[in-house]
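[job 4471] stage=fold_predict status=RUNNING
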Amino acid sequence: MEKFLEKLSKETAIAFKEAGYDENLGKVGISNRPDLCEYQCNGAMAGAKIYKKAPIVIANEVAEKLKDSKAFSSIEVCPPGFINLNVSDEFLTEFVIEMNSANKYGVEEPAEKKRFMVDYGGPNVAKPLHVGHLRSAVIGESIKRIIRYMGHEAIGDIHLGDWGLQMGLVIAAFKEEHQDMVYFDDSYEGEYPKEAPFTVSDLEEIYPKASARSKEDAAFKDEAMACTKKLQDGVRGYRALWKHIINVSVADLKKNYDNLNVEFDLWKGESDVHDVIPGMVDYLKKGGYAHLSEGALVVDVKEDTDTKEIPPCMILKSDGASLYNTTDLATIMERKREYNPDSIIYLTDKRQELYFEQVFRCAKKTGLCDPKTKLVHIGFGTVNGKDGKPFKTRDGGVMRLEYLINDINEKMYEKISTGREMSEEEARSVSKTVALSAIKYGDLSNQASKDYIFDTERFMSFEGDTGPYLLYTVVRIKSILKKFAENGGNPDECKITANVSNASHKILLMKITGYNEMMEGAFEELAPHRICAYLYDLANVFNSFYHETKIIAEENEETKKSYIALLKLTLGICEDCMQCLGFEAPERM
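[job 4471] inference complete, writing structure tokens
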């Protein structure tokens, strides 16, 4: 479906052409001075340079040609050559009616469906999720949903950190306490126990202690490295123990991601490409891409056009060990082979920008990645406390994500259950839904690359630019529609008419017209914050309309039904926006 500004621009383009000027000068935009007009065309200023005429002359000639346009109720020229435009009620409502009957409210299906892989999550197994994992999960999930909403295929991969020294540390610490277990008996040939010999709570104690000890105890670190090698060499007992670690950790991760309404299509990790790394390294050597530098195997990725130093991409360390670069390149190679994606999107801390620049260049230069595949890194800022520093617990430790979510759920429950007639079960359910909106909207409303302050009280507020405010607006619309139905009306049979009652009514209609253009922009820029900004503006203009307009009490039946149809449309757009952001509204609050 054509966008509203495109339709308006067509009208002014015709006028420019009829006046003897380039029709491309007729682009219309939303006015930045709503006190003067609704829309504006500044083409006369650009035309003045081309045609050597005063812009006011061009603007007046174009305005004269626009007089008969049905699109505009008023056309006014202001010095030095602005064309100020107000849209006609009929033209506006016709477009909104068309939107209302269109699939996804006018968001067009792509001419060519593409396949995107979204690499987000990235937690290490045997370690609990902490607040630093929040942004990757929340932003990545939203981007995946936006891609799907726009009609493309999106495959979400958690990309677990399940290989390397961290596994050796856990195994070494466990082995020290349980040397008599069959996992460490080289002569054992039977089946290993199906039940894990530890819980997720055990792992959460083992790993940090082992990690800290390895920094001070050289002998223990050597043992951990020896365990890592045995694991990677395929020693049966170590592989069996490793599988227990994975299974216990993944079960806990799924529970925590479920609490964030985050889902992954693939639960792959670094270990999935371990066996293909030797072949990849051999390919890089034989192809002349990789060479030795101070004992390490590297690929030069600098380019003549670089304005800053881009170090080589290291493939193997001097001792022959692989690195994150190695597994990421092997993963790109495997993704090409298994999925042949049009784009791979990575969500990580923005401080990894140089790292991904190296990896992407290496993948392209060496042919590990298809030339047509776009490799995109979305670097996000940190989640900070009110002191402006990375979010911590009271005792200075890193806040566990599970505790943060539970804390907000409890605080929201106190709010929801106070002064409302709800069963505890309903209050718990509603508070969890509203708390999720507070967390996700609090994050997503910020541009991804920026740091932001996690202000629990502000995020949970039912007023201002917050998730609960948006949900409250949606619940208000649902309540009106429910009341209309209880009074014998059928919202599905109501239709929007050309009658515009007041200024707030028209502003709501105009905000609705920008929906498909906004969604397209959010997709092209992979920017959930654009949806947040639109949704907040839409909620504000709706609430102004609600406060200034009698809806259920409207005496004219046709006008009332037009209002109800408009509410239903507004609700649908709000729900689609929230779906793309990864949360929903309850039936009541």
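[job 4471] summary: The mean pLDDT is 96.
[job 4471] exit 0
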